[in-house]
Design brief:
Layout lengths: L1 E5 L2 H7 L6 E5 L13 E4 L9 H7 L5 E3 L17 E3 L6 H16 L2 H9 L15 E5 L3 H11 L4 E6 L6 E3 L3 H4 L5 E4 L13 H6 L5 E4 L8 H10 L3 E4 L12 H4 L3 E3 L10 H18 L12
Parallel strand pairs: 1-2, 1-3, 3-4, 4-5, 6-7, 6-9, 7-8, 9-10, 10-11, 11-12
């Protein structure tokens, strides 16, 4: 009997029918482990909250697969035993994240925050917006999130330019950013947080962006130097739309809350009704691959 551990009773329903020979137990990785956890071979932790990892791994000596329902693994690097294969949910959240990027862009370009303020004040205050046709959009992060975003932008006649660690067909290299940034109307961050990307968007990076350009971060907060961004926002030179922050959650009274030229959402890009069903459809497929000895998808190996 193969034991699968999921984080809560709701996940049992989302997982759906499992193959014969599978036993599903529930544990969120905290407190006293329930009976049977020691036989777990396939673990699905709570999204972006894996609990006390050393304690969990000690409680699961037979664990072989750790299947996430999120894509980022920066908090797990160096913590996974060699015996455990770590798999992400790459591809699950791409559509919803890309939709939020488009929402940010359209809201900012068409001055929606201005009109909302005018509506609350009961004022008919007409200002000129801008469209997306011909706009150059640098998408830094050429994985699934970047691809999904680029595909949607093309339908608005924008010009997406994907940027990855290295150049390949259809993708420019990060080493070219110094030349690319001055040509960008919009810069979208969809890359993972790594030692290389942490603090990448600093004062020098922002200074290369043209006046009135828009920075969008749906990746991870620490990729952006918050103080440097605040300087550009308060001067009125740049605009921003942020779903992730450093620190996060964004504390009460933080200067970003009252900064001009910024749209803020509370890490909501993947928080849509179909996220759970999509994530656990992947989990179910991965479990079946595991049971039949097929290669698993989205395996994290080597450098991240």
């Amino acid at each position: 009997m193969t034991v699968v551990c999921v984080p809560d009773p709701g996940a049992v329903g989302l997982l759906g029918a499992v193959p014969d020979g599978v036993e599903v137990i529930v544990w969120d990785g905290r407190g006293t482990p329930p009976a049977g956890v020691e036989r777990t071979e396939f673990w699905v932790p709570k999204v972006e909250d894996e609990g006390d990892l050393p304690a969990v791994f000690a409680a699961m000596p037979e664990l072989k697969v750790m299947q996430l329902t999120s894509a980022g693994v920066e908090n797990l690097v160096g913590q996974i035993p060699v015996r455990v294969t770590l798999c992400t949910a790459r591809g699950v959240h791409g559509p919803s994240v890309a939709e939020l990027v488009l929402l940010f862009i359209l809201a900012s370009q068409r001055r929606l925050p201005h009109f909302q303020d005018a509506q609350r004040a009961g004022q008919w205050d007409l200002v000129e917006g801008d469209d997306l046709g011909g706009k150059r959009v640098l998408i830094i992060g050429a994985g699934n999130l970047g691809d999904e975003t680029a595909r949607r932008l093309r339908s608005f006649d924008a010009v997406p330019i994907l940027v990855g660690r290295g150049a390949r067909d259809g993708v420019r290299a990060r080493s070219e950013l110094s030349d690319l940034l001055p040509t960008a109307d919009i810069v979208v961050l969809t890359l993972p947080l790594t030692t290389e990307s942490k603090g990448m968007v600093d004062a020098a990076f922002l200074a290369r962006m043209p006046d009135h350009a828009l920075l969008i971060n749906v990746a991870r907060g620490p990729i952006v130097d918050t103080a440097a961004l605040l300087t550009e926002l308060t001067s009125g030179r740049l605009r921003a739309a942020l779903d992730v922050f450093d620190p996060e959650p964004l504390p009460e009274g933080h200067p970003l809350w009252s900064a001009p030229n910024v749209i803020i959402t509370p890490h909501t890009a993947g928080h849509v009704r179909q996220a759970g069903p999509r994530a656990f459809a992947l989990v179910n497929a991965q479990l079946r691959r595991f049971m039949t000895g097929e290669n698993l998808l989205n395996v994290i190996a080597g450098d991240y």
